[in-house]
Amino acid sequence: MASTSSPAPASFPIGYSVSISSRFRSSRSNPSPSLITKSRRAYVHFQPRASYKVTILGAAGGIGEPLSLLVKMLPLVSTLNLYDIANVKGVAADLSHCNTPSQVADFTGESELGNSLKGADVVVIPAGAARKPGMTRDDLFSINANIVKDMIVAVADNCPDALIHVLTNPINSTVPVAAEILKRKGVYNPKKLFGVTTLDVVRANTFVARCKSLSLIDVDVPVVGGHADITILPLLSKARPSVPFTDEEVRELTAGIQNAGTVVVEAKAGSGSGSATLSTAYAAARFVESSLRGLDGDCDVYECSYVESDVTELPFFASRVRLGRGGVAAVMSSELERLTEFEEKGLEALKPELKASIEKGVAFGQKQSAGGG
User: Fold this and answer.
1) Which is the most buried residue in 1, 66, 116, 335, by most CB within 10 A?
2) What is the mean pLDDT of each successive set of 10 residues along the chain, which is 373 residues long?
3) 358: nearest Cα among 306, 309, 304, 315
4) Which of 45, 97, 165, 227 is catalytic?
């Protein structure tokens, strides 16, 4: 996939009337306060027409349920299909009482999976087992790879042109699994397959704003690499607004962003939700909205995502992408230029681990393609 460069926009999370990932867009790297104010006011008063169908696979789970609520709130969604193996009817009935434009439908069990996907513009896959204390994302692979395989086969059969958002961990491996299954089915389009790593950006923005006493509305930190441990690399040198960081702040912030998921898992020990469900749902809804805005013709929508690209020697890599009507319109390459020494070392350190995760996913997917599972 071709790479290019582009200014990185700021973002501000708001809510339904303004939208979750509302952004100022400008060709300027540092828009003036007056431009920001005008952009924000214009977007607040803009009410897009709901016209897209979104299907959530795993809608009754710990991530799926709050994600379904947040997607129900998005003004571009006309139809929200909720699928799970059980307990989804109650979620759909509950959400159907929310006075937002989208219509909600529920689908239960394997026999209804195909119908939940027909005509979908965007498919979001949070289905899968959650991390428990002591588990790494990689520990989930043997369970979740099979779940992703089954979901992707159904997507390929029923809505092959949909944008596919994979949330199921370990994303570093499950996205390559999905790619291999789609290749086997003859419908692979690398521009339409995303590993949703927005949570890493959300965390980076939050932690940097807190560290530097900045308004969250102004903060945007690109996060590259993958979505597990040291493969998560926040590029603090590229943060906006540009602020100085001490070496200690860089080390602490980087470690905090990389280990944030484990902190939540440990804090929730013994609870039913287990992992970072609420923040993951929030971040995923932001990415859904950005994708829909791209589909709707907004040509100035940027998010970080784990996609097939050539910005490094690795076949999959998380970096900022520009979203458009066909999914990925461009992969940004400029943010990997002129890195600090700390970031350069971090980039080189993550590559072997990410490479191994990708190869595990590819091998699993190819085994399925060969009839091995």
Assistant:
1) 116
2) 45 40 36 37 52 97 97 97 97 97 96 98 93 70 93 98 97 97 97 98 98 95 96 97 96 97 85 80 98 96 97 97 97 94 98 97 87 51
3) 315
4) 227
